[in-house]
Amino acid sequence: MNNLKKIKIQLNGGEYILKNGSNLNDLLKILKKDNNKVAIELNGEIADKKKYKKIILKNKDKLEIVQFIGGG
Prior knowledge:
This protein is mainly beta and 72 residues long. The chain has one domain (3-67): Ubiquitin-like (UB roll) (Roll). It is 11% helix and 35% strand. The chain has one helix and five strands; from the N terminus they run E-E-H-E-E-E. The protein has one helix at residues 24-31; strands at residues 6-11, 14-19, 38-42, 45-46, 62-67. A five-stranded mixed sheet has the order 2-1-5-3-4, with no helix packed on it. The protein is globular. It starts with 5 loop residues before the first strand and ends in a 5-residue tail after the last strand. The model has no long low-confidence stretch (mean pLDDT 92).
């Protein structure tokens, strides 16, 4: 693996490797998560859904993804 083309992030407490330049939308596509059914905390702050395409992930970013599940 060429380290210049990959970054390591912390995702829900575990290590995850992504292509350098990936944004939050890219991550959700990889994880097969629906943008409308999740909330993302990036480095301690809730990320604005409208900015997911513009938020480029960086090495050592810490993310928590919470998925909304309906039930009754």
